Amino acid sequence: MRNRPVAEGDVLTVDDLKAYFMVDGYGITREVRAVDGATLRVRKGEVYGLAGESGSGKTTLVKAIAGAIRPPLKIVDGSVRYQFGGETVDIYDKSVNHQSLRWRHLSYIMQGSMSVLNPVRRVRRSFLDFAYRHMNMPKAQFWEAVETHLKKLQLDPAILDAYPHQLSGGMRQRTTIALATVCKPEFIIADEPTTALDVIVQRDVLKMIKEVQRQQDSSIVFVTHDMSVHATIADRIGIVYAGRIVEEGPTTQLFRDPQHPYTVHLISSLPRIGDKSARTSLPGRPPNLADPPSGCRFHPRCPLAIDRCRKEAPPLEGRHGENRVACWRAGEAKIA
Ligand SMILES: Nc1ncnc2c1ncn2[C@@H]1O[C@H](COP(=O)(O)OP(=O)(O)OP(=O)(O)O)[C@@H](O)[C@H]1O
Asked: Which run of H or E residues covers position 189?
């Protein structure tokens, strides 16, 4: 395992992280290499977006970053380190108490997380169950802090007395985000928080996440397959393909000048106002991660693949500015 020094201003430092599903069948164990050597940093106050098709490994990567690992998922190598209150916390150090990190320092809004709101209890009860013990204050003061937080996020404190089923999908998601951020965590991980919502409601939820980030100066890792959402919210984006980050860069640079053919494809497939021509889709699907392709994992689908791509995996390297890309033919593909 290679641990690079934590750079100043970085809140999250992930080095060469490998997280595999160990799947048993017919007496043999197969490794599904869902995260296979991820290296990234997230700075204080930054929104870092993770993009990529379904099955590329985004959820597994954020689970590994959050320390939310359950069998059959296993950390095979690498490290995940946070800077919390001036201290370095290695999330896989056995002495680290995850319970004490959760909510106060690190909040993880999982895919489908609206279900954290207990369906048979009023919303108030979920705040009490999850947040109260992390806030270290008398109850009256706690409820005051909850109401202030809700108001700051333009939510009516009356939602505390509602049952989850009485709220619309958008309100439920906004309530879940308010719950996840009431303890003012330094780091927030949000996995597809807007995917099930229609576009208008999606916009409100994104606005709210930005507002939380601005008020609390927290860092966010935001997962979605939807590049147009990344364009709205992310400061930097990491493109994930088959368990690896294949390109990373500041959002404007990545959209203006993508270097990896896969990033070029993701951007080219976005609908554009006034353009009635059909968007081309990339043939094929992401590979089976129990038996990934040799060399560059994208080579079977890549229109630019050469022999070297089939044999050698390209490293993720600085290209220009802050951009990093893992491709032997970086910069050659053009947006359609
Ligand atoms: N419990 C599991 N056992 C075995 N393999 C799994 C398990 N969960 C996920 N995988 C595999 O791990 C890989 C990465 O899945 P992951 O859910 O992280 O991708 P994703 O990019 O988040 O996709 P989605 O957006 O659909 O959630 C996929 O190949 C998937 O089939």
From this structure: strand 187-191
Alpha carbon distance 319, 258 (integer Å): 11
- pLDDT higher for 14 or 1? 14
In this predicted complex, what is the ipTM? 0.97
Query: Ligand 1 — pocket residues by CB below 6 A?
Result: 21, 23, 32, 34, 52, 54-60, 72, 225, 289
User: Which residues lie closer than 8 Å to 249 by C-beta, 6 or more apart?
Assistant: 236, 237, 259, 321, 322, 323, 324, 325
Query: How far, in Å, from the CA of 34 to the mean position of ligand 1?
Result: 7
H/E stretch holding 267 = helix 261-268
Residue 60 Cα to ligand 1 middle (Å): 6
| Structure confidence by residue, pLDDT tens digits, 122-181 | 999 999 998 998 888 999 999 999 999 999 988 999 999 999 999 988 899 899 999 999
168 CA → ligand 1 middle, Å: 29
Strand partners, 282: none
* Domains contained in the chain, CATH given: 102-226 (3.40.50.300)
Best residue for ligand 1 mutational test, from 17, 59, 192 (most atoms within 8 Å of Cβ): 59
Instruction: Give the 3-state DSSP-derived string for 101-151, with helices as H, strands as E and coil as C.
Output: HECCCEEEECCCHHHHCCCCCCHHHHHHHHHHHHHCCCHHHHHHHHHHHHH
